[in-house]
């Protein structure tokens, strides 16, 4: 099997993934997943697509992630891994689609408007 290259996005995070056959090593920005994402919850989010199709430990993942925070990066990586698994084996697609790993989450941060303190929050009103 050759290298499968895919991309995943969430909020302002962009994850590029290179999937190869291997022993299940996940490397993010030249660091181990346990170092880059110390939170156990984020590690399970990243492993969800491989767990859904029962191939956890069969593929090595190398990822480059830019932008956003930790949760956005983890979910972008999850999407990229799910897309890569679909390219490896088309039979994985229905299970991954059912779990929602192939759908881009469209929610973004709303921009700040002038005359407001935040996007929707107004300044405090003073009657006197």
UniProtKB/TrEMBL annotation:
Q: Could you give a single Gene Ontology term from the biological process aspect?
A: translation
Q: Which domain of life is it from?
A: Bacteria
Keywords of this protein's UniProt record, alphabetized?
Answer: Ribonucleoprotein, Ribosomal protein
Instruction: Please name the Pfam families in this protein's record.
Output: Ribosomal_S9
Q: One Gene Ontology cellular component annotation?
A: cytosolic small ribosomal subunit
Record has Ribonucleoprotein as a keyword: yes
GO MF term list: RNA binding; structural constituent of ribosome
Q: Which family does it belong to?
A: Belongs to the universal ribosomal protein uS9 family.
Q: What is the protein name for this chain?
A: Small ribosomal subunit protein uS9
Q: Which organism is it from?
A: uncultured Cytophagales bacterium
């Amino acid at each position: 099997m050759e290298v499968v290259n895919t991309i995943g996005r969430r909020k302002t995070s962009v994850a590029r993934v290179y999937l190869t056959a291997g022993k299940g090593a996940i490397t993010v920005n030249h660091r181990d997943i346990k170092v880059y994402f110390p939170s156990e919850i984020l590690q399970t989010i990243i492993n969800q697509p491989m767990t859904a199709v029962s191939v956890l430990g069969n593929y090595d993942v190398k990822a480059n992630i830019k932008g956003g925070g930790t949760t956005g990066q983890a979910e972008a990586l999850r999407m990229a891994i799910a897309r890569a698994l679909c390219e490896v084996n088309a039979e994985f697609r229905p299970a991954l689609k059912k779990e929602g790993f192939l759908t881009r989450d469209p929610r973004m941060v709303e921009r700040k408007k002038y005359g407001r303190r935040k996007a929707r929050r107004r300044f405090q009103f003073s009657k006197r």
